[in-house]
Amino acid sequence: MSDLLERLRDRGWRLTAQRRVVAEVLNGEHVHLTADEVHARAGRLLPEISRATVYNTLGELVALGEVIEVTTDGRAKRYDPNARKAHHHLVCTRCLTIRDVPAGAGDGTLPEDDRFGFAISGVEITYRGLCPDCQSGA
Amino acid sequence: MSDLLERLRDRGWRLTAQRRVVAEVLNGEHVHLTADEVHARAGRLLPEISRATVYNTLGELVALGEVIEVTTDGRAKRYDPNARKAHHHLVCTRCLTIRDVPAGAGDGTLPEDDRFGFAISGVEITYRGLCPDCQSGA
DNA sequence: TTTACTGCAAACCGTTTGCAGTTCC
DNA sequence: GGAACTGCAAACGGTTTGCAGTAAA
């Protein structure tokens, strides 16, 4: 995570308290927060951080490829800091929880005949189903 | 397509001019219109159709499983009438065109070990890349 | 000191909603 | 005739933007 801050500084970023806090909040595995959740958690560490700054920072992190934007439903985008290893998502159809699943070997290979001339640069796979808690009626 | 209208009537739908027109607009392969586009096209056939009715109708068609809601970007949802055969999507990263690709045999099989206890009910695969036109700079 | 960044507030876009009026069956 | 549907307009949630002020380098 401090890696992230270093990388950002190397790219000419000013390391402001706000950016530090956003980076902090996005630290971890299986983190898929909405911008609003990031704002709420960042606000616990730095009370006066504004929504606009959170949106700016998230947008910049996405542009730099440090964070992945995930839209598994029509609602708010979620921000996934696990950009360094290829993975897909498992989404609970009931509680909307998201889990990362490692990318498999055969993923993202579309037969030549089905490519319609597209030059494919990436694949996203979203598995949908009930998570263990929702299966047991929790 | 008239099949669709029959199916809807069988389910107790009132066949209003508005619904007929929305069904008409959604007819075809590789159709991935936004609600607004549906509204615009429907408006050419039935000038006074309202946005609310288009949204209502689209929502109902989705609930009935006749149309699939596709969110390939964070912007507007797109409505895909090709709900009868399983397929995935090829999305141009530049012009955002969408093409359907047939679902392959091995799609949607996630190794038991990677399921985290989820009961998987469906998979969506989105391939991203440049479409032929955008590759040639068109 | 300079210029990137922040916070505010207003605007924005896609979508949903409440309700009065209309129309299908 | 009655319930289902439509259209309007207002409200909504998530996101973006313009701009004056602040702070990192």
How is this structure best described in words?
Two copies of one chain form a homodimer. By secondary structure, chain A is of the alpha+beta class. The first copy, chain A, folds into two domains: 3-80, Winged helix-like DNA-binding domain superfamily/Winged helix DNA-binding domain (Arc Repressor Mutant, subunit A, Orthogonal Bundle); 87-135, Ferric-uptake regulator, C-terminal dimerisarion domain (Dna Ligase, domain 1). The first copy, chain A, contains five helices and six strands. Chain A has a three-stranded antiparallel β-sheet. A three-stranded mixed β-sheet of chain A has the order 5-4-6. In chain A, α2 packs across α3 and α3 crosses α4. The radius of gyration of chain A is 17 Å and the shape is globular. The first copy, chain A, starts with a helix and ends with a helix. The model of chain A has no long low-confidence stretch (mean pLDDT 91). Chain A binds chain B through residues 69, 71, 73-74, 77, 90, 92-93, 99, 101-102, 104, 106, 108, 110-111, 114-132, 135, and chain B through 69, 71, 73-74, 77, 90, 92-93, 99, 101-102, 104, 106, 108, 110-111, 114-132, 135. Chain A binds a DNA duplex (25 and 25 nucleotides) through residues 13-16, 18-19, 34-36, 48-53, 55-56, 59, 74-77.
